[in-house]
Amino acid sequence: RLAPEFPNVTGVYCDDLLGLMKRYDYGPDEFGGIRAAVRKLNPGLKLWTVVYTHEFQEADFWRRMRPHIDVVTLWIWKSENILHMREYVEHCREIFPDKPIVMGVYLRDYTKVAPIPVNLVVSQMEGIADLVDEGKLAGYSILAAVLIDGHRAQADAVRDFIAARSDNAAPVAEKTGAK
After folding, report:
1. Backbone phi, then psi, for 171, in 5-degree steps?
2. What pLDDT is recorded for position 168?
3. How far apart are CA 137 and CA 123, in angstroms?
4. Is the CB of residue 110 less than 8 Å from the CB of residue 81?
5. pTM to 2 decimals?
6. What pLDDT, on a 0 to 100 scale, did the predictor assign at position 169?
7. Residue 11's pLDDT is what?
8. How many CB atoms lie within 10 A of CB 161?
9. Closest Cα to residue 124, out of 58, 74, 69?
10. What is the 3-state secondary structure (H, E, C) of 106-134?
11. Which of 94, 105, 108, 109 could form a disulfide with 79 if both were Cys (CB 3.0 to 4.6 A apart)?
12. Separation of alpha carbons 41 and 105, rounded Å
């Protein structure tokens, strides 16, 4: 209901969707009703949905949900699995072939109650950049501003990666005439 008043509201974000739907005994039909209600208020709103890589075994559920999802945000729950990111993105593409996929980036491994090792954060950022360049990812989302002070090394690694990537983009734009 806020979207007409605030044009910067462009979507609805559904976090932990599979778990919540199981808890409340919702299925694709009920979720379709939610999407219809959102679209009735503002047809331009996108419905973003969190999918965790460990939920891929629920592929049939996700395939039935596919018509009701506009954007997938893909999250790797265990930091040691970051090294398999490319495979996860390919698997997600199989389940959601026609949807934009945005990769989630954690600064904290909630399974270990500890910061993600900086080398894995950097590896993920590099992998994301490659996958965006290849057209396999639409972008990334970083969780969360509240963690920056407590996970300074991880936040700095992400910031430095983004800054270096931005600096490298300028010469390409100048060469191609892109704006």
Report:
1. -65, -35
2. 66
3. 16
4. no
5. 0.89
6. 58
7. 92
8. 17
9. 74
10. ECEECCCCEECCHHHHHHHHHHHHHHHHC
11. 109
12. 31
Element (H, E) at 142: strand 139-143
Total Cβ atoms within 10 A of residue 32: 14
* Number of H-type helices and E-type strands within the chain: 6, 7
The token pair at 48 is 């973003």
Q: What is the mean pLDDT of the chain?
A: 91
Tell me the one-letter amino acid at 62: W
| Element (DSSP H or E) covering residue 52 | strand 46-52
- Burial label for 102, CB within 10 Å (0-12, 13-18, 19+), is buried
Q: Which residue in the block uniquely carries the two structure tokens 């808890």?
A: 23
User: Where are the alpha helices (H) located in 45-176, listed in sequence order?
Assistant: 59-65, 85-95, 118-133, 152-176
Burial readout 120-133 (b: 16 or more C-beta within 10 A, e: otherwise): bbeebbebbbebbe
Token reading at 77: 């729950």
Do 50 and 15 touch, CB atoms closer than 8 A? yes
Q: Return the closest-CA partner of residue 161 out of 149, 135, 132.
A: 132
Sorted by sequence, the CB contacts under 8 Å of residue 78 that are 6+ apart come out as 54, 109, 111
Separation CA 43–CA 132 (nearest Å): 27
Q: 140 by DSSP, 3-state: which?
A: strand
Exposed / middle / buried, residue 3 (Cβ in 10 Å: 0-12, 13-18, 19+): middle
